[in-house]
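Structure tokens
________________
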Amino acid sequence: MNPTNKFQIKKFVVGYIQTNMYLIINNKKGVIIDPGFIDVEADALIKEIKSECQGIPAVLLTHGHYDHISGCAIIKQQFNSKIYCHKLEEDKINDSEKSGAGLFPSGNNPIFGIDDYLHDGKKIELIGLTLKIIHTPGHTCGGISILLGNVLFSGDTIFKSSIGKADLYDSSYDDEISSIKNKILTLPLETIIYPGHGPETTVKDEKKYFNI
């Protein structure tokens, strides 16, 4: 699927459990969403990113689980990027047990700082684009989705014909269903959903799946 806007989206499937890392490219600059790559993938990814972009001014995190943040320190070091997330995710970023890092071979979170916080309704101007933040709690309490034109980056809130796990630290199944039905599936039918794992989908298709 390709959005109708002029910006480009590149998807990289990375890490131990095939996390979708996204690179948004506009005006020869990039924004990364959820750099969940691991050390052995870093050199090749950095080389490709540098071939596509003259800089990465920002990294946006949909939530603080290890498989979505594991490459943050490397990106920040390579590009001097600012890292953004919802304030309610900071406890996971600073605590390897809460982030689930212990479930993976590395066992520990990367060490990096958060430069700014995102909240529901916030509009952030980056690389000539306006991205709108939608707080979508459920998979985590501070989980967000990121709306860019007719594209939604949903993190692990919703997947194609599925939802994210809701039995983890600070998860809530009720909140997740509410976020999906009241915040995501109320978007225009043609909205393309780029999830944290698996293939793209659309609001139209997911409304059919959820029988809405």
